[in-house]
Predict the 3D structure of the following.
Amino acid sequence: MSYSLEYLVNVTLKDVIPYISEIRWMQEKIEEILKKVSQINEFMAVLEEEIKRESLTRKTDLKIFLTYFQKRVKSIASKERAERT
């Protein structure tokens, strides 16, 4: 059972909203990145580059999102490996 990048991003966005200072800005930034990439690894790489460029508050918001996103991806990957064995 594979999940689309868009699905993973949307579910993660819902998870992190309580912890984000600039929600609308972050949603727009994430959508902008999604338009540029099609793979999970690409998405994370571009997001990491964006984190380096942003102001402190925005950097923190993106780091929170990235941390939750990485946890979700790892969790799904672990479940899929377990299902195959």
Q: What stands out?
A: The mean pLDDT is 94. Residues 56-84 form the longest helix (29 residues). DSSP finds four helices and no strands in the chain. Helices lie at 5-16, 23-36, 40-53, 56-84.
